[in-house]
Predict the 3D structure of the following.
Amino acid sequence: MTRALLPFIAAVLILGSSCRIGYTSGKEMLEADWFDPINTLTVWVLADIQPTKKSHKEAWEEAVSDVNENVPGIDFAIVAGDIVNDTEEETFDWYVNTRNGSYVEEWYEIIGNHDLKTDRGKLFKEKLRKETDYAILKGNILFIFMSDSERGKSTVISDETFEWWKDLVVNNQDKIIVVVTHAPLKGSGISFSAWKGRNIVGSRRFRQVLKDYRVDLWFSGHLHIPHGILSTTAKKEHLGGTVFIHVSSIRPEAAGMKESESRVMTFVCGSDKVLVRVRNHERHQYMTNLDEVFTLSKPYECKDVNPVAGPLTPGKTARAATPETTP
């Protein structure tokens, strides 16, 4: 993600808080008959911490403090890439130390373009996890994580990883499927995702699969834009009804005009609804006017289900990344 945010800020000023596809107020959501606050799976989804100055580091530390003090019940956290701005050991250690101060014990990170910047992901693998593409199963929800595999502004996903993802999607249609990448899919409808350098290279191959096989939710970061502007969530019926969800940056932008934000999503046992909320860590509050409820392909089953059909990580023999030249 570049530092140029003037187009984004202009969009914020012009569009303000837009209509959203799954809108409902936080109050009516939390009081709905189907919402059970006990039997839930709650996930903190964040992206783009990448500090370049002291205030950016303070924003990450404040986000962890906010969750610790004000957001109980999170089961695990997802970080959609760009943990650091420059691949320095000191910055990775600072991230890990801050993260480990959270009460949240499970963390699932992927590599963004900045995490590859100078060492091609070496420190990420040493400090966080060896697997850069992997999947996990929670009840009947299959989470699929795909990292950037090449340096550059766009997200490059190798052919091998694409085929692994495709097999998981095709063979696990009995499950709710959630995908996490750093950049959004071109054609997702997310604001600015059609711009060069802002999407997944070779997006067309993913779109072709989505036309025939359901992915429920697709989270991505990279754009750093505030959640309140037009089209930071988008449902594409011609892509199997997938809901694409942008995750804004933890670090504040544009002299504080873009505040530190993340998302919190909650699945409810026995329900086919998922609540997706925006957390403002500077204000220590949910932005309830941005609450959204989406209908999933099937209800969430909080008990153990059949195992995943297919490997949870790609094969060990990796091929060179040869994505399409046109996103």
Remarks:
- The chain has a mean pLDDT of 87.
- The first helix runs from residue 6 to 15.
